[in-house]
Amino acid sequence: MSLTPSTPNPEPVPEKTGLPRWVGVLFVIAFCLVGWLFYATYNNNQALHQAQDASNKKVQALAGELDKTNSRLADEKGQLEVTEQKLGLTEDELARARALAQTVRKQQQASDQTFRKALGEAQANNANQFGQVNTKITNTQTDLSATKADLEATKSKLQSTIGDLGVQSGLIAKNHDEVEELKALGERNIYEFTLHKNKHMEHVGPIQMELRKVDTKHYRYTMNVLADDKNIEKKDRDVDEPLQFYVTGARAPYEIVVFKLNKNEAQGYLSTPKAASQAPPAAAPGNGASAPGH
Question: Is residue 2 part of a domain?
Answer without folding.
Answer: no
